[in-house]
Amino acid sequence: MERYKHTQIGYVTIPSLGAGTLIVLSILLNQGRNWVLLSVLLILASSAVLFASLTIEIKDGILKI
């Protein structure tokens, strides 16, 4: 049976989340401990890892994302 697989890289997502991470990190380093900024930093960094790419696969009529 036919198989289709495509991976799309987030060429806009990666630099955008990376820039946001660097901005929040620099503010955090200048201000000292701030739990809100630390939470935002962790969310941005984990989002960059999770949404760096997307793979779609269709095999035997089943769609996998």
Mean pLDDT: 92
Q: Which term fits the overall shape?
A: elongated
Q: Give the low-confidence spans.
A: none
Widest sheet, order of strands? 1-2-3
The number of helices is 2
Descriptive overview:
- This protein has 65 residues and is an alpha+beta fold.
- The chain is built from two helices and three strands.
- It has helices spanning 13-31, 35-50; strands at 3-9, 53-59, 62-64.
- It has a three-stranded antiparallel beta sheet with strand order 1-2-3, with no helix packed on it.
- A hairpin with a 2-residue loop joins β2 (53-59) and β3.
- α1 packs antiparallel against α2.
- The longest helix has 19 residues, at 13-31.
- The model has no long low-confidence stretch (mean pLDDT 92).
